[in-house]
Write a structure and sequence with these properties.
The structure is a single chain. By secondary structure, the protein is of the alpha+beta class. The chain has 3 domains: about 110 residues, Uridine Diphospho-n-acetylenolpyruvylglucosamine Reductase, domain 2 (2-Layer Sandwich), CATH 3.30.43; about 120 residues, Uridine Diphospho-n-acetylenolpyruvylglucosamine Reductase, domain 3; about 230 residues, FAD-linked oxidases, C-terminal domain (Vanillyl-alcohol Oxidase, Chain A, domain 3), CATH 3.40.462.10. It contains 17 helices and 18 strands. Strands 5, 6, 7, 8, 9 and 10 form a 6-stranded antiparallel β-sheet that branches. The chain has a 4-stranded mixed β-sheet with strand order 1-2-4-3, sandwiched between helices. Helix 14 packs antiparallel against helix 15. The longest helix has 20 residues. The two termini are about 15 Å apart. The structure holds flavin-adenine dinucleotide (FAD). The site of flavin-adenine dinucleotide has 35 residues, from strand 3, helix 6 and strand 10.
Length: about 525
């Protein structure tokens, strides 16, 4: 640690360095460099936050934490590392909701993106605009939380079209992965709904990029796991926001009918959201269902051991308020859920999009939110989803798991993803996302779940199910090469072009091994 501490401090204070202390000739105000050096926090409290994440599995201590007040603060930090003979690593930390240390930087500097605020020099905040060629869009700082993007755009009667289930994530953090939810089948992931980005590269250069301008950087950064630059602004597609939603859950005993109906629903485009999840004997009660519906479902689950719940949503507002029930009825006609097991709710658009927040608050109140999260997220080709069900959901999850999940499973369309981005998905027109979102209350639980995750990966490998990990986590270079497949070469080339000194997002462990 000592040499790295020395490098960072000398980089910050050495005369001639881009981060040197400002001249003291003007006594009234601090120079920008002095402000920056002052904002590098080495207090135990800063280090503690920056060395943990939602997963609570990995802990990597950074040398210091930058709480930037402007993008130029971050630019100076990155440039100083880039220009140093011994560069130090830098990780942008969004809201720290990764689960395997992806936003950490051992012995380097973590940049707390949410410290940026809209009053800072040149900071973007959230700005809604309109152009003939683009329609409505929002320019949004990479540090912004999606919940704030939603609130601000709703004030204009607008909203982004593609979401994540949970909104207390940053724009830069989800765009570095993909950003998926039940709207993805229809609009593509969040990375398919971006017009333009401002990106601070690993050379400390702030570049604007889009499909037609610096497109290598644009596509590299989208789904790029933070490897090519720090997103400081994203121009996000907006559409007219509905006021309300019809929200339906249907229970299936049979996986084949469940997935057949899911695939049918994503092919007809009548709905705005399609997801699904497993209900096992361990699934806790859910607010969506009334107590009597819940006990009906519980007794069916104890007969079957495993049930599948298809979740669908259709948006509406004053323009279709009189026809929405009929329209929905038509869409759901012919589906094969268990008769009598359809449950409906009418809610505001905001309440629906922010649905996971309620669960967070409830779990937090009983000390179950900030626990260990050994999550495994996979993309599974549709052609093998039946084998996956038998081998994983039935044989492993249902028989062996005492953990309540949630376990998500829903399909999406490959054509809504842009193959030029860095995101990796299976090579099939339709594929499923499977989110095994475990919580572990003890270290014993954690090791059981980690072993189970390994078993699932081994099963897929043995059975030739060509899964791709979402939020990939690998330790060996060969594993990363296999993950990226044909895209590895271009991924590497982009790294050499935009972050040749391998400064950024070391916690992903793609180019940096500890
Ligand atoms: P962090 O975890 O802080 O960072 C993630 C990575 O991005 C790191 O490598 C970091 O260095 C890099 N990074 C952060 N900011 C920037 C930036 N501005 N520019 C470049 N790189 C940056 N994901 C989904 O797709 N769909 C979901 O429905 C979903 N639901 C979730 C629910 C919960 C409860 C949780 C905890 C996570 C969920 N996620 C979901 C995962 C989430 O998308 C990832 O954790 C993601 O990393 C965003 O979190 P973050 O903003 O906290 O980023």
């Amino acid at each position: 640690l000592i040499p790295i501490l020395f490098i960072i401090i000398t980089t910050l204070i050495t005369p001639g360095s881009s981060l040197r202390w400002g001249s003291k000739t003007s006594s009234s105000s601090s120079s920008p460099n002095e402000t920056l050096a002052n904002s590098l926090c080495t207090d135990p409290s800063c280090i503690k936050t920056a060395s943990s994440d939602y997963g609570e599995i990995v802990q990597e201590l950074p040398f210091g934490v930058l709480n930037p007040s402007s993008v130029s603060d971050i630019a100076r930090l990155v440039k100083s590392s880039y220009e140093s003979p011994s560069p130090f690593t830098i990780a942008a930390r969004g809201n720290g909701h990764s689960v395997r240390g992806q936003a950490m930087a051992r012995d380097g500097v973590v940049v707390e993106m949410t410290s940026l605020n809209s009053s800072g020099d040149g900071n973007v905040g959230i700005r809604v605009s309109w152009e003939d060629s683009l329609g409505f869009y929002a320019d949004v700082g990479g540090e912004q939380l999606w919940i704030d993007v939603l609130r601000t755009t709703l004030d204009h009667g607008l909203a982004p079209v593609s979401w994540t289930d949970y909104l207390y994530l940053t724009v830069g953090g989800t765009l570095s992965n993909a950003g998926i939810s039940g709207q993805t089948f229809r609009h593509g992931p969040q990375i398919s709904n971006v017009h333009e980005l401002d990106v601070l590269t690993g050379k400390g250069e702030l570049m604007t990029c889009s499909k037609s301008m610096n497109s290598d950087l644009f596509y590299g950064v989208l789904g790029g796991l933070g490897q090519f630059g720090i997103i400081t602004r994203a121009r996000i597609v907006l559409d007219k926001a509905p006021n309300r939603v019809k929200w339906v859950r249907m229970i299936y005993e049979d996986f084949s009918s469940f997935t057949k109906d899911q695939e049918h629903l994503i092919s007809i485009l009548g709905l705005d959201y399609v997801e699904g999840f497993l209900i096992t004997n361990n699934t806790p009660p859910n607010n969506f269902f009334s107590p009597s519906d819940q006990s009906k479902i519980d007794s069916l689950a104890s007969e079957n051991g495993i049930l599948y719940c298809l979740e669908a949503v259709k948006y509406y507002d004053d323009s279709n308020i009189t026809t929405i029930d009929e329209d929905l009825e038509m869409i759901l006609t012919g589906l094969s859920f268990k008769p009598g097991f359809i449950f409906k709710k009418d809610s505001s658009f905001f309440e629906f999009l922010n649905r996971v927040r309620d669960e967070e608050l409830q779990l937090d109140a009983i000390g179950q939110w900030n626990v260990v999260h050994p999550w495994l997220n996979l993309f599974v080709p549709s052609s093998r989803i039946m084998d996956f069900n038998q081998g994983v959901f039935v044989e492993i999850i249902q028989k062996q798991s005492t953990n309540p999940g949630p376990f998500l499973v829903y399909p999406m369309n490959r054509k809504m993803w842009d193959d030029r981005s860095s995101a990796i998905i299976p090579d099939e027109e339709t594929f499923y996302t499977v989110g095994l979102l475990h919580s572990a209350g003890s270290t014993d639980d954690q090791s059981i779940i980690e072993e189970q995750n390994e078993e699932i990966l081994r099963f897929c490998d043995r059975s030739g199910i060509k899964i791709k990990q979402y939020f990939p986590h690998y330790r060996k270079k060969e594993e990363w090469m296999k993950h990226f497949g044909m895209k590895w070469k271009v991924f590497q080339e982009r790294k050499s072009q935009f972050d040749p000194k391998m400064i950024l997002s070391p916690g992903q462990r793609i180019f940096t091994s500890y």
